[in-house]
Amino acid sequence: MPGVFGLPEISMLQAAGLFILSKIIFTPGMGGGSKSHKKSHGKDMKWKSEFRNKFRPEMERCRDKQADKDATVDVE
Questions:
Q1: Is residue 57 part of a domain?
Q2: pLDDT band at 33 (very low <50, low <70, confident <90, very high)
Q3: Distance (Å, rounded) from C-alpha 29 to C-alpha 23?
């Protein structure tokens, strides 16, 4: 980068500090990444609950049919 943009060289300690700072800022669950992750997770949970509520009667009907099949056993 110094040759391309004319930036000063940094030491290994400064590079390690930049690496740690970037991990804190950009890792979900820490720093700035946590808020956006929680928002998207909440949207996923809302979508899943709406889907379950919409198809719950259909799922219960299928379970009832399966229970009726299991209750009737053919004996030969």
A1: yes
A2: very low
A3: 11
- Total domains present in the chain: 2
What is the identity of the amino acid at 15? Answer: A
Range of the domain at 64: 34-71
Cα gap 38→70, rounded to integer Å: 43
How far is residue 13 from each of residues 17, 18, 21, 25, 43, measured CA to CA in Å? 6, 9, 12, 18, 41
CB 72 within 8 A of CB 66: no
Cβ atoms of 58 and 67 within 8 Å: the answer is: no
- Is the confidence at residue 17, as pLDDT, over 90? yes
Report pTM.
0.35
Give φ, ψ of 21 to 5 degrees: -60, -40
